[in-house]
Structures are given as structure tokens and as C-alpha cells.
Design goal:
The chain folds into 4 domains: 2-78 and 86-230 and 239-253, no CATH class; 269-348, no CATH class; 350-493, Band 7 domain (Tetrahydropterin Synthase, Chain A, 2-Layer Sandwich), CATH 3.30.479.30; 506-565. The protein is elongated, with a radius of gyration of 55 Å. Helices cover 60% and strands 10% of the residues. It is α+β, with helices and mostly antiparallel strands. Strands 7, 10, 11, 12 and 13 form a 5-stranded antiparallel sheet that branches. A hairpin with a 2-residue loop joins strand 2 and strand 3 (318-319).
Length: 624
């Protein structure tokens, strides 16, 4: 029995080697992506079978050594005749233990590195891979189908033998044989799909296989970590470290049913697996799964188009003319892959950016400073310029600099899909084409406008002009989009020259400010001089008018006085005297002498009193 197991392991090794070489040659000749990705599993299976085969040989040698030792003990009658230690008496056992302790662990580490390297290679390769037509697909399909049959039969036979404890080392190789058979079947199906016109199916299948390799690498790493903390029980046979439970599950999914039955028996305390319902479920499980798959397949005949969306219906890769665009609501179609629906949110405003790459961390900043980058990447745009600042970027003299400058701008472009058929069928990548169109129109427009104009008063006009230009170009290419908005924001010189630009622009503003101050002072002085001259002219005119009027008044008064004097000379003289006395006594201090010819000396205090004295207050009089 044991010799047969060792031979079966050797047969598995040779068959997988031959199938792997043939599959590699066929995959590269046919150009199938899934076949090339499946070579990783065939290579992993070959390495695992090689290690398990050598481990089987060591266990077989150990078994024969123990049988020989027992025969010697029986022939001598007692084992005490041998004074050798157990390690010296069983060198094969020691070799097997050393092999499992050191070589198996090292091989598992190398296996993980191989899996991780394969995942990295598949990821970088498939990320930019393009599905191409297959060379001689009929021959490739037949050969991969034959590979799948051979590996399946041999793997199924080995997995049946591996159920015995003595043949447990056949289980890792048997799992890889069955998985290799399934992979060859998947490659055959992908070749058939490519032959039917579904070129992307081969790419999708290869990416799924790459994901399975990544999961296997994660499982191997977890097994290595758990192996450090696994308790060692002497005499207990442990599971090989390089054996993958994930590969075993994919190769033998029926093991889930057995595991579930054991778990149910343990939980309920009786043989649930012996009940009629479980037996029926076990027999009808495949049909139930097929029924569910059929229901799932027929469910693809119902399509719901969400509000704000439109769908394109294709039948066998061709657009239907009578049902070109599906509006929001419920629709029916043929099952997949006969009919396929491609959805687009045609009512949604979509946005792309020109001139910068946004940075989520810097978007939180509320203040935009020219000298500090506020995006992840900012692109310099060529713009026309008039004046001495045209040579700022090159530090050349103003009279020698070209009339251009560099400008940094954040230009968001918002658009909406107006014609889904034109957007989807006229061009392969409409969004990238629209972005390139908008970028070209922005560059063309900026080279014809002035730097200071676009940074100040011309921004609104530039936004409308750019929107019209991009829309016209998109209409020429029948892109099927409507340009909603083209914004111009954060317009400033490049960060490297922004400080110098501010200095030069500040000096220019200082010159303009000084010029305006001088003009204001000149206007103020001129107006003040004109006002002063006009004031003096008006004062002279008023003075002349007053003098003339006074002279006329005196002349008229003198004429009237002559008449009054003639009428009453005494009264007129007395009246004139009193008027002159009144005018002369006004605002003057007077001295009154009451009597004459007296010797009394009267002292008059003619000083002004600040406040009245007590004696100056009149005493109240009593009333009767």
C-alpha cells in the first residue's frame, strides 16, 4: 500500500510537470491571459508535490527502519542488548524530524515569497494588459480540455486515497491537481468566450486568478505566524505546513458539506447527518445550487434604470436601433450574456480639473497665498503679457523679453451627457477626449489674452469664451455633451516667481499711487488758486460797490441836511450837536460833578466789581 502511494506521488509529480510545460507553451503561443495566469498555480503545485514526495520517502524509510528494529528485537529476545540511544537507533526518524523542522519551514517561507512575487507580477502585468484575439483557439481549447480531464482524474483518485491516514501526504498534491484541472477548464471557457466575441472575459478570468493567488499568499503568511505559537504534542501527526486549506476548499468544495455535518452533529448532540432531510439535502444540493444559478441567470432579464440614469441596450455586442436608450424605469431584455445594459448618469453634473491636481489635505485651507502651493500639483500655462513684466520669468531685461509670461490657474470644467449614444459609441473614452479638448482650448485662449486682464476684469469674459470654444469643439466631434461651466479661479503667477511678481507689481502700484497723488495735488493747488483769485475779485467788486453806494448816500444826505438846515437852523444845529455827542460818548467813561465851588474831596472807585459786596445788597423793608 505504501509503495503504491509513493509511486502515485511520483506519477503526480511527472504528470503535473508535463502538463505545466505543455500549458506554458500553449498559453504563450495562443496569447491567452488566463492561461498565463494559471501557470502560477501549476508551478506552485509542482513545488508542493516535490516536497511532499520527498517527505513521503523519508516517512517510508522511517517505517522500514522501525520494522527492521522490531525484527531485530524479536530475534535477539530483548532490546536491552542494544545500548545505543533512540537518536542513534533511528537515524531515519531523526532525518525526517530535521526535514520537517527546518526544510519544510524554509520551503514555506520561500513559497510565500514566490506567491507574493507572483501577485506583484500579475498585478503590474494585468493592470495595463489589453485582451487580444487568440491564435488558433480551437486547438488551444481542445488541448486545455484534455489537460483538465487528465488532471481531474488523477487528482480525484489521489484525493480519494488521501483520506487514509497513511496517505495524508498525497492530499496537498491532489488539491493542486484538482485546482489545476479547474483552471484548465476556466481557460477553456475563456477561450470559448473570446471566440464568441467577448474579449474582456479572458482578462477578467486572469484577474480573478491573480486574486486567488493573493488570498493563498495571505493564508501562507498566517500559517507561518501560527506555526510559531502552535503547541507541539509528541506522537501527534500534524498537518503539513505547506498544505493550503484554501486550495483544498477550491479543489474539493464538497468538503464543506462534511465539515458542516460534523459541526451540526457536535452542536445538537446526535447524528444530524443521519436524518432523512440531511440525506436529501446532500443528494439534492447540486440540483438546488443549479436551480439557484438558473434563477439568478433568468433574473438578468429584468433591468431597473435609476432616476437620473439612462441605459444602452446591446444584443450580442450590437446596439439595438428600436430600443437604443432606456429611460428610467423597469425594462425587460434577454438573459446575460445575450443582452447587456450599460448605464450612465446622464442627469448628473460631472467635473474634471485643468491646470492642477487637487490635494485633499490642502483643500481645507481657506486662505490662498500666491507664494505657497495650495494644490498637490500646479501646471504652468503660457499667457500673453504687455509691459515690463513680460520678462519676469527669465530675469531678462524688459526690452529684450518676449511678450509672454507663465500663469497658474485652477480651471474646473463641468459638463453633462446630453446624447448617450454619441457619448458611448462615437469615441472609446469620451471623458479623456473631452478633457484633452478643454485643455487644448484653454492653452489656445490664454496665449491671446493679457496677463493682467485675465487676472482682473477679463475673468468673466474668459470663462464664457472658453465655455463656448469647448462646446463648439465637442459638437464638431459629436461627443454628445453639454458644457455647463468653465471656471477660472486661483489665477496667479507660478509660486517660484510669485514673490518677485508681487515686488515688481507693488513698485508699479507705488509709482501709480505717487503719480495720482501728484495729479491730485496739482488739481487741488490749481483749484485753490482759481478760487482765491475769484474771491479777491469779488471782494474788490464789493468794495467798489460799497464805496460808490456810500458816496451816493452821503451826497443824498447832504442834500437833505441843507433842506433841514434851511427849514430850522437852530433845531438842526442842536440836533447835530446832540448826535455828535451821542456818538462820541458811546462806549466811554463819564465823570459827573454835582456842584461847583466846594472843597470836598470825593473818591470814586471806578473799578469794575467782580461780584457785589455785602453792603451793596439792599435790606428788606418791613411791611405793615
Amino acid at each position: 500500500m505504501e509503495r503504491d502511494i509513493k509511486k502515485i506521488g511520483l506519477v503526480n509529480l511527472l504528470v503535473l510537470l508535463v502538463v505545466g510545460i505543455a500549458a506554458a507553451f500553449l498559453s504563450f503561443q495562443a496569447g491567452t491571459l488566463s492561461g498565463q495566469a494559471g501557470l502560477v498555480f501549476l508551478s506552485l503545485g509542482f513545488l508542493v508535490i516535490v516536497v511532499s514526495y520527498f517527505q513521503m520517502r523519508l516517512e517510508e524509510t522511517e517505517r522500514l527502519e522501525k520494522m527492521e528494529f522490531e525484527e531485530l528485537n524479536k530475534s535477539k529476545g530483548s532490546s536491552s542488548l542494544f545500548n545505543a540511544t533512540e537518536a542513534e537507533a533511528f537515524p531515519a526518524q531523526r532525518a525526517r524530524e530535521q526535514f520537517e523542522r527546518f526544510f519544510v519551514s524554509s520551503f514555506t517561507v520561500l513559497l510565500f515569497m514566490f506567491q507574493a512575487g507572483a501577485v506583484y507580477w500579475l498585478w503590474t502585468w494585468l493592470k495595463d494588459a489589453t485582451p487580444l484575439p487568440i491564435n488558433q483557439p480551437a486547438v488551444a481549447m481542445s488541448l486545455f480540455g484534455m489537460f483538465a480531464l487528465v488532471l481531474f482524474l488523477l487528482g480525484k483518485y489521489s484525493s480519494s486515497l488521501a483520506r487514509h491516514a497513511s496517505a495524508r501526504l498525497l492530499r496537498p498534491g491532489a488539491s493542486y491537481l484538482l485546482l489545476g484541472a479547474y483552471i484548465c477548464f476556466i481557460v477553456t471557457a475563456s477561450l470559448a468566450a473570446v471566440q464568441m466575441g467577448f474579449l474582456n472575459f479572458d482578462l477578467y478570468a486572469s484577474r480573478v486568478l491573480a486574486g486567488v493567488v493573493a488570498l493563498a499568499a495571505v493564508e501562507t503568511l498566517i500559517n507561518l505566524v501560527l506555526e510559531l505559537y502552535r503547541p507541539r504534542v509528541k506522537g501527534k501527526v500534524s498537518r503539513p505546513l505547506y498544505e493550503s486549506r484554501l486550495v483544498g476548499l477550491l479543489a474539493q468544495p464538497e468538503g464543506l458539506v462534511t465539515t458542516a455535518a460534523q459541526a451540526l452533529d457536535y452542536q445538537f448532540g446526535f447524528k444530524v447527518s443521519d436524518t432523512w432531510f440531511y440525506r436529501f439535502l446532500e443528494k439534492a444540493l447540486a440540483w438546488l445550487v443549479l436551480l439557484q444559478l438558473a434563477v439568478l441567470w433568468f433574473s438578468t432579464t429584468i433591468v431597473f434604470i435609476s432616476p437620473g440614469e439612462q441605459g444602452l441596450l446591446e444584443r450580442f455586442g450590437r446596439r439595438l436601433t428600436d430600443r437604443a436608450v432606456l429611460e428610467p424605469g423597469l425594462h425587460f431584455k434577454l438573459p446575460w450574456p445575450m443582452d447587456q445594459v450599460y448605464r450612465q448618469r446622464t442627469r448628473e453634473i460631472q467635473t474634471f480639473n485643468i491646470g492642477f491636481v487637487p490635494d485633499p489635505e490642502k483643500e481645507k485651507e481657506t486662505t490662498v497665498v500666491w507664494t505657497v502651493p495650495h494644490y498637490k500639483t500646479e501646471f504652468n500655462l503660457l499667457v500673453a503679457s504687455r509691459g515690463p513684466l513680460a520678462s519676469l520669468a527669465t530675469n531678462a531685461p524688459a526690452e529684450r523679453g518676449a511678450p509672454v509670461d507663465l500663469l497658474t490657474a485652477s480651471i474646473p470644467v463641468q459638463y453633462r451627457i446630453s446624447n448617450l449614444g454619441a457619448w458611448y459609441y462615437n469615441h472609446t473614452e469620451g471623458s479623456n477626449l473631452l478633457e484633452k479638448i478643454a485643455t487644448r482650448e484653454v492653452i489656445r485662449y490664454l496665449v491671446g489674452v493679457d496677463l493682467f486682464e485675465i487676472m482682473s476684469s477679463g475673468r468673466a469674459k474668459a470663462s464664457k469664451d472658453l465655455q463656448k470654444r469647448v462646446q463648439d469643439r465637442a459638437n464638431e466631434l459629436d461627443l454628445g455633451v453639454e458644457i455647463i461651466f468653465v471656471g477660472l479661479q486661483d489665477i496667479h503667477p507660478p509660486v517660484k516667481v510669485a514673490k518677485k511678481f508681487e515686488e515688481v507689481n507693488g513698485a508699479r502700484q507705488d509709482v501709480e499711487a505717487a503719480l495720482r497723488i501728484a495729479e491730485g495735488y496739482a488739481a487741488k493747488t490749481t483749484n485753490l488758486a482759481q478760487a482765491e483769485g475769484l474771491r479777491r475779485l469779488r471782494e474788490a467788486e464789493a468794495y467798489a460797490h460799497r464805496k460808490v453806494t456810500e458816496a451816493q448816500a452821503r451826497s443824498a444826505q447832504f442834500t437833505n441836511q441843507i433842506a433841514a438846515s434851511k427849514a430850522s437852523p437852530d433845531v438842526f444845529s442842536q440836533r447835530a450837536y446832540l448826535q455828535a455827542f451821542e456818538r462820541g460818548a458811546t462806549n466811554s467813561r463819564k465823570y459827573i460833578l454835582a456842584v461847583t465851588n466846594t472843597q470836598d474831596v470825593i473818591l470814586l472807585n471806578l473799578e469794575d466789581k467782580i461780584r457785589p459786596d455785602l453792603l451793596d445788597i439792599a435790606a428788606p423793608t418791613s411791611r405793615r
